[in-house]
Design goal:
Elements: E1 2-6, E2 11-16, E3 24-25, H1 27-31, E4 38-41, E5 52-58, H2 68-72, E6 86-91, E7 100-101, H3 105-119, E8 124-125
Parallel strand pairs: 2-8
Antiparallel strand pairs: 1-2, 1-6, 3-7, 4-5, 5-6, 6-7
Amino acid sequence: MKVLVLKTDERVTASQIAAQRHNEIQITDIKRLIPGALAFYFPAKISRLAYLYIMFAEKDADHRPVNRIASALLQEEDAGVIRGDVVIARTDHLGIGAKFFSMEDDEIQNVVERMTKILGHPIVSR
C-alpha cells in the first residue's frame, strides 16, 4: 500500500508504507517520511473526490522551500503556504480519533490527475 509524497522540487512519488487491517496506517509510519513534529492540512481541492485526504508536513519548517503543489491544494481563503515535503494519505474524518489509510495505485493516479488539473501543467509522478 502507498501514500503520496510531494517534494518541494515538484516531484510526486508513491511511497510504500506498512498497512494494517483495512489499509490503515499508523502516524509513526508517516513520521518516518516527514522529519520533526507534524502539521496537518486539509487539501480541500482534491478531497472533493470519492475520499477525504489529509496532508502531513513538517511543523515549523520556515527554513524549507515552499511546496507549490501542496500549497495549491489548499482553499484560497487559507492563503497560507506549506513548506517542505508533504505526505498525502486518506482519512475517514477530520478531527480527534481520525484514522489514516494508504491508497491503491488507481486512487493515486486519480489524485495526481486532479492535481495536474488544479496546477494547469503536468506533474512528474514516479
